[in-house]
Amino acid sequence: MPDASSLPGGRASTRLDVAIVGGGLAGLYAIHRLRGMGLHVRAFEAGSDVGGTWFWNRYPGARCDVESLEYSYAFSDELQQEWKWPERYGTQPEILRYINHVADRFDLRRDVQLDTRVMSAVFDGKANAWTLTTDKGDVVRARFCVMAAGNLSTPRVPDFKGIGDFKGKWYHSGLWPHDGVDFSGLRVAVIGTGSSGVQMIPIIARQAKHLHVFQRTANFSLPARNAPMDPDRERRHKADYPARRRAAFDTPFAIAGYPKPTKSALQASPEERRAAYEAKWQEGGSISFLYAYTDLLVNKEANDTAAEFVRDKIRGIVKDPKTAELLAPKDHPIGTKRLCLDTGYYETYNRDNVTLVDVRSDPIQEITATGLRTASGADYALDAIVFATGFDAMTGALREIDIRTTDGASLADKWAGGPLTYLGLMVSGFPNMFIITGPGSPGVKTQMIASIEQHTDWIANCVAHMRRRDLDRIEPTPEAEAAWVQHVNAVADSTLYPLANSWYLGANIPGKPRVFMPYVGGFDAYKRRCDAVAANGYEGFEFSRQPATVA
Ligand code: FAD
Ligand code: NAP
Known about the structure:
Layout: E1 3-6, E2 12-21, H1 25-35, E3 41-44, H2 53-56, H3 77-82, H4 92-105, E4 112-113, E5 118-124, E6 129-134, E7 139-147, E8 169-172, E9 187-191, H5 195-207, E10 210-215, E11 221-223, H6 231-239, H7 241-248, H8 270-283, H9 286-290, H10 300-317, H11 321-327, E12 340-342, H12 345-348, E13 354-358, E14 364-367, E15 371-374, E16 379-381, E17 384-387, H13 396-399, E18 402-405, H14 411-414, E19 433-435, H15 448-468, E20 473-476, H16 478-493, H17 523-535, E21 541-544
The protein binds flavin-adenine dinucleotide and NADP nicotinamide-adenine-dinucleotide phosphate (NAP).
NADP nicotinamide-adenine-dinucleotide phosphate binds at residues 64-65, 152, 158, 173, 191-197, 199, 214, 216-217, 338, 341, 359, 364, 388-391, 503, 508.
C-alpha cells in the first residue's frame, strides 16, 4: 500500500512509485498495467467520477465517431468478448457505462482519488522524485509521474465581452450539466460547428423554438449511418477480435477492416472516383472515406476531388442555395480538420426554426443581457447559448499544471514556442515524467484507445527494463528530442494538414504558438519506431542510477 504520513497543517503526504494525473481511459489503463507490475500507483482525477472525455461531454447527441467494436480496450479478451455494444457507434452514456464497468471489473477505483486537481508537479533532482500538490492540499511524492490528463480536456469559452451580463443560461459542450438541459420552447444559439456542434445541432433543433447556429468555419461532415448493432457482424468481429486488434497495429489510424488504398485519386476516372466516394458515403464513417485513395491527405488536387464530392452532397441536401454555399467548406482540404460524422446535420438547415449565421463575415462582437450582437450591429434575442467552441487541445491540460524541476526549469517556459517531446512520450530535462498521447504522438489521429494502450504498454515495459537493471532515472537526450520534433514537423509538412486552421496546430486559441502537434506519420510507423527504440536499448534516452530519497 502507498505510504501516507502527516505533514504540518494536517495535509497528507503520500509516497508512491507512480503518480498518475487523470482518471479517463488512459489513467485507468495506466493503473491497471502498472499496478499489475507490483508498483504502488494512484491516479488523481479532477472530476467527481472516472471517464474523462465521456464523463464531461454529456451534450445532446455526444457519441463516438469510431465504431464501438473498435473504440474499446483490447487488453482483456474476456472484457471485449463479454461487453455488448448496442449500436454501431457508442453513445456518451454507453461509453461511460463501459468505462465504469472496466473500473469495477478490474478493481481500479481504489487507486483513483476523485474530485482532486493536480496543481503542480516538481521534480527534485537530488531526491530523484516528483512532488505533486493538489487543490485538496495533498502532497504526493513519486518516483515516476504519468500525465494522462487528456488532449481535449481543457474546455475553452472564447473571451467574449459581456458574457457575465447574459440573463439566460449558457453551457459549454465539455462541461455539460449532469441532469441534462431541456431546450423546449427556447431561443437557442449554438456557437461552433466542429464535431461537438455538428452532433448536437440536429437534436437541439428538434427541441428549440428557434435555433441560430453561429458558424465561423464550415466543416466537412459525413453521414455516420449509425444503426443498432448487427448481431452477425458482432459475432464475426468477436470471433476474430485478437487478430483484428493486431491488424490495427499495421494501419495509420489503428483501425483495421478497411482495405488499404492502392492508387491515387488522380489515377481513377471521374466516374470511378464518384462511385468510390458514393460507396463510402453510403457505408458511413470518416476513416473509410479518407482511405479511399492513397493521396487524399497529401495531394491537394486529389483532395479536391473528394472535397468537391462532399460539397455537392451538401448542395443536394440543403434546399436554400445561400445556406448550402455557406455550409460547403472551401477554406481547407477535406480531412485536415477533424472530419465530422453526423446524423441529419445538413438536413437540419431545411427546418423553419433553424437559421445559419455567418460569423466569419460578421463576427460575434459581444454577448448582451438578452442575447448576442455581431460586429454589424445585428442583435439576436436568446434564452440559451451553447458554446461548442472546443478545447485548448493537446497542451492545455499540461499547461494548467505548474510543471517544473528544482533546477529552475519549467515546462511552460520550455514549451513557450510549442511543445517539444521525444516520441510524444517524454520531455528532455523532465526526468521520469511520461505523457500518454502527448504532442508528438499520433494519438489524436488514431482510434485513441489503441494509442493509449500502446503508449502505456511501452511505458510499463520501460519501467520494467529500469527495474531489471537497477536504473532510477530516465530522460530523453536533447538531441533525440530535437530530431523527433523535426521529424514530426517534416512529416506534417509533407501533408495537407498545415493548410487548415485547426486545433492540431493551436489555431483556435488566440496567442497559442502555431506549431503542428500530432505525429501524422501513422500509428503503424510510430509503433514500429517505439518498438525499435526499446529493442535498441532505449535509443535516445539516458538512464542513471540514483535511488529516490523521498522522505
Ligand atoms: P481524457 O478522457 O480527456 O481524461 C483526462 C482526465 O484528466 C479528465 O477526466 C480530466 O478531468 C483529468 N485531468 C486533467 N488535468 C487534471 C489535473 N491537473 N488534475 C486532475 N485531473 C486532471 N477519440 C476517438 O478515438 N474516437 C472518438 O470517437 C472520439 N470522440 C470524442 C468525442 C468528444 C466529445 C471528445 C471531447 C473527444 C473524443 N475523442 C475520441 C478523444 C477522447 O478524448 C479520447 O478517445 C479518450 O477519451 C481520451 O482519454 P484520456 O484518458 O487520454 O483523456
Ligand atoms: P472544435 O473542433 O475545435 O470546434 C470548435 C468550433 O467553435 C469551431 O467551429 C470554431 O470555429 C468555433 N469557434 C471557436 N471560437 C469561436 C469564436 N470566437 N467565434 C465563432 N466560432 C468559434 O471543437 P469540438 O467540436 O468540441 O471538437 C474538438 C475535438 O473533439 C474534435 O475535433 C474531435 O477530435 C473530438 N470530438 C469528437 C466527436 C465525435 O464525433 N466523436 C465529437 C466531439 C468532439 P473555427 O473552426 O473557425 O475555429
